[in-house]
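Researcher: I need the complex structure. Ligand is glutamine. Inputs:
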Amino acid sequence: MATSICSKEDLERMIDDVRLYTKDGKVADYIPALGKADPGAVACSLFFEDGNVLTAGDKEQRFTLQSVSKIITLALALMDRGEEEVFSRVGMEPTGDPFNSISKLETMIPSKPLNPMINAGALAVTNMLHGNTSQEKLGRLLAFVHDLTDNTDITYSEEVAKSEYETADLNRSLCYFMKQHGVIKGDVEELLDLYTKQCAIEVNCLDLAKIGYVIGNQGKDPCTGRQIVPLHIARIVKTFMVTCGMYNASGEFAIRVGIPAKSGVSGAVLGAVPFGVGIGIYSPSLDEKGNSMAGMKLLETISKRFDLSIF
Ligand SMILES: NC(=O)CC[C@H](N)C(=O)O
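Model: Output:
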């Protein structure tokens, strides 16, 4: 997709049109630090194949990846351990349940989380990252994010990580359940520490758009052409984004928008389009399923306007 197809004014207008939806949602506050976000904020970046960038809206906003980090750890775990091992500990099917649900874990035989986009599955994936210590695992993950974004300044928010770690009792229970069933190995508190830091990696819309571009572009760096994520892994990640990326709203989203996407409870939404554009959106006011209200609408507008559905 060429840069000329969309002007800055166009993008500003599309953002203004969806801004009203922020009033219908609510900022996540089950992680107390996320509750401080400005509910009216909306920002968007588009990263094009010629390296050009369009950013509009509240573009100075920085935010944490939250569940968007799940696609990044999945790619890294697949690179570290290969498909066979990863999918022996996490499934490939959508759940239709909320992202933090525990219910299917008990009924699955063998007991493994249904997919890597729900919290249980993401915790199992993070547990598979290579590294001798948590520090080393986090360092490898951050280095991978630096590669994907071409931004070595990115780190995690200590405040958000701590806030989630101190209140993550549901994720704690998922971990202990999975440890009992051999899905998770090692120390649960160490895993939660790493997982909450992974979720607290702090970015802006442009960083998000670049990651979206790389995944949409079969794993290749937009500037150098280097294969950052192997092609078959980029394909797996995109498929999960379509089937489970918006949690239990993924079906409707696929029909309305048709862009492989991943959302997070911070209000982050990443779109990976195979037509030479990466999309990063931030708007923290969420619907009851945990997806950004204005963010989903904006992605729908962009998809329809530029005919970006993959279906
Ligand atoms: N949906 C999300 O973004 C959830 C991520 C969040 N860190 C959690 O585990 O609850």
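Model: Summary of the prediction. The first helix runs from residue 8 to 18.
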